[in-house]
Amino acid sequence: MSEPASIRVYMTPLVETGVYGETVDVTQDVDVSDLIKSGGLGTLKRQLDFGDFDIGVYVFGDITLKCINYDGRFNDSSDWRSMFPYRRDLTKVEIKVISGEGVVYSRFKGLINDDATKQDYAKGEASIRVLSLDSIFRKNNVAGGAISNGNSFKSAIETILNVPEVTSILGYDVANIELGYNGTIDDASVFDQAIIKGALDDLLLASNAILYIDGSDNIIVTPRKERDTTHYFYGNDHIEGRDNIINISNYNNGTQRGFNTIKVNETVRTNDGWAEEYGVREKSFDLGFITNETTEEEIGDALLAEFAVPKPELEIEVSSFDAVQVDLLHKVRVDFDYMKRPPPGQDLLTLTGTATTGSAVTNTATGNIRIRPEQIFKVVGIEERPRQMITKLKLRQVGNLTSEGWA
Amino acid sequence: MAFDGQMKFLEPSMALLKNGATASASSNTAAAKYMLTMNRYIGWTSSGSDDTTTETITITLPSAKTVSSVFLLGVNFKEFTVKKQGSAEFTNVTGISGDLAGGITETAFTGNAAYYEFDATSVTEIVITATKTQTADEEKTCLAVLPSAPIGTFAGFPDLSEGIVLDRNEKRSQAITGRSVISKLVETASLRLRMRSYPEQNDVELIEKLFDRDIPFLVYPCGGNVSHFKVSQKGWRIGDVYQMQTRGNMPAGFKDNIYVLGVEKDIRMEEVV
Lengths: 407, 273
Known about the structure:
- The complex is a heterodimer of chains A (407) and B (273).
- Chain A has 407 residues and is mostly beta strands.
- Helix content of chain A is 11%, strand content 34%.
- The two termini of chain A are 43 Å apart.
- Chain B contains one helix and 20 strands.
- Chain B has one helix spanning 201-212, and strands at 8-10, 22-25, 44-45, 55-73, 77-84, 93-95, 98-100, 104-106, 113-133, 141-142, 144-148, 150-153, 164-167, 171-174, 180-183, 188-198, 217-220, 242-247, 253-254, 263-271.
- In chain B, a hairpin with a 5-residue loop joins strand 14 (171-174) and strand 15 (180-183).
- The longest helix of chain B has 12 residues, at 201-212.
């Protein structure tokens, strides 16, 4: 009997300043899965926008591990029984999914954050807060004077990312930095000593780009355009028996994220046609590093082109094993027809191509959602529930025009 | 000799469309692929056929498989053959009515489903030829072709007092008028199987084997043996075969905790994708 599918949690602590353990199973990739409480592995979440009614750059999911700590091994290094030889903070944590065929997929990487880690004596439990790898952005500042007036957005992002505090944790390559709009900074003083995360949020928004960490821990900055890989999901008693969708929820026409008026500082840009169609839907941003009105207009135009046209969105729930290779901005095609039942008096479905016009009766169709396989979506959020082995994919139709996003 | 065992369990169909199997037919070939699913509502129907026309269906497995049984479901054939690649016959064939000489050849078939077991053999194609239908000159139909291999057959009679539970999985909402709105969906099957002071070693090991499996299996409640039943009902007919998996835990005990008595087991199975 082959090893059944499972979720495994591994830790690699520091052995000295800036140096992680290298002895597998001793100080590197220590499997602590048997010491994570049932239900103690929360939801793993990554998504491109802050919520249904907003646009943003990236939400990194942090998690809390509830660890069985009867013997104190998850205490910090001051306890002689601790598994952390140097310090518990910044210990690397990796969560892997192992399929029934023994293939291993890495689904989450992060660093322990001692600030939010707590212990409970009665429960014998350590609640360890793990921030995703990008949390390094939240713990460091932009050096004073690193960014200058007249720098392009791209060079500023490169300067912010290419520092040892970041590159010691994440892979950086200038070839992985691509923006939707590359403007010029007018007042760089805004960035002096700013938290890296805040500086990046503003620059990425102005650049109409997003940032994510790929499966090899590399920093990728890219426009919101979909990537080349396509995944296929089927549901509702699929006629070819390919069902792998558990549920579809939160289907909407995207109006809530259709902003036809963008205000950058005091400069307003409007898509008149869509404003007339849906009423004015405005989103405003304060970007202190931009004072040039032309730049403000160009930023507004870039964001308008991205968000003026509402695009349908939905969430699909699938088995985590069917979604292990799905990543942000991958394309998804969904074949989810109305559920067809034979018409009254028939045992079998009427089949197009076989049925005789004039005598055949159309099938009964039930259900309130139909997604055509010709519609192309991109993944804008991934939420994994390891306990149920279910993944929820948040999808948005690709393209910036109503005619785009169809095969 | 006809099948004389009880409930059978088999490997899942080795020719499923979603796993890469393909199908073609001498007419209406576009619909041939619908014979390669577990969907009970759609299959293949010939076009422009009658009793003077021989239709040929070719099922191509995704790769060579060792096959020792085959289901034909939802058929109206009266006269047909089933062979493997190269027009080779299956050998030592047993069908619902008993042993067949010279491979799977029927000349006066009645009923809407067939099940055959034969010597295990490597199969890359299943080729079905059908000439006459049970009602003369009808279009020929076939819902599903499921090549498989038995995992095991119960020798005894476990407790299935709850029966094969069929569920239409309806959506129900009560309106403000007090009346309900019910929308019936796809029918699924499940069962609860209990072994009470059970003495059959073979059956106990079979259930344990199913519990250990990570992949689904076919459940054939009648086992091809309809001589047991006075009245026919859904779930127990020749054509009722379900792709299932075990669900939940499986206690392992003995009657009154006396080890020398029979075993006590309780396991649930339900239909899966």
